[in-house]
Amino acid sequence: MYGERKSFVPVKIGDELNVKIEAVGEKGDGVAKINGFVLFVPNGKQGDTVKVKITKVLSKMGFAEIVGKADAGSVQERSKRVNPQDLPDQQPIEYAEDSEDFGED
């Protein structure tokens, strides 16, 4: 359909990744990005480089918890765009049910 864009989710629940917290969101969570995909990381502080475990994946964002310090020199590439067609065949992506009302208190 015209104007419709398929979203590509570069992570799945249970993945452990090294990320750099790039910012802090309105609600105080750290914000990291993997290939442009936003991850919210509770207790993440801007500038920290940490190892996280993916806990929830939605179509446009994900959530992760800090599980330790990042391995030296192994932060995930943030600027490189990945074409899904260049990746090996993968299992279907697990999505958590999107039941939260973001922006509404």
**Major β-sheet strand ordering:** 1-5-6-4-3-2
Write the CATH homologous superfamily of the domain at 16-71.
Answer: Nucleic acid-binding proteins
**Head-to-tail CA distance between termini:** 34 Å
**Shape-level CATH architecture of the domain at 16-71:** Beta Barrel
Number of strands: 6
Give the helix proportion (percent range): under 10%
Low-pLDDT parts are 77-82
The main sheet comes to: 6 strands, mixed
Shape: globular
Rounded radius of gyration (Å): 14 Å
Mean pLDDT: 79
The string of secondary-structure elements, in order, is EEEEEE
In the CATH scheme, the class of the domain at 16-71 would be Mainly Beta
Compute the number of helices: 0
The assembly state of the depicted protein chains is: single chain
Structural class: mainly beta
Strand content: 25-35%
Describe this protein with a few key phrases:
105 residues; mainly beta; OB fold (Dihydrolipoamide Acetyltransferase, E2P); 6-stranded mixed beta sheet
Describe this entry's structure for a reader:
With 105 residues, the chain is an all-beta fold. The protein has a six-stranded mixed beta sheet with strand order 1-5-6-4-3-2, with no helix packed on it. It has a domain at 16-71: Nucleic acid-binding proteins (OB fold (Dihydrolipoamide Acetyltransferase, E2P)). It has strands spanning 16-20, 23-24, 30-34, 37-41, 49-57, 61-69. The protein is built from no helices and six strands. The chain is 0% helix and 33% strand. Mean pLDDT is 79; it is low at 77-82. It is globular.
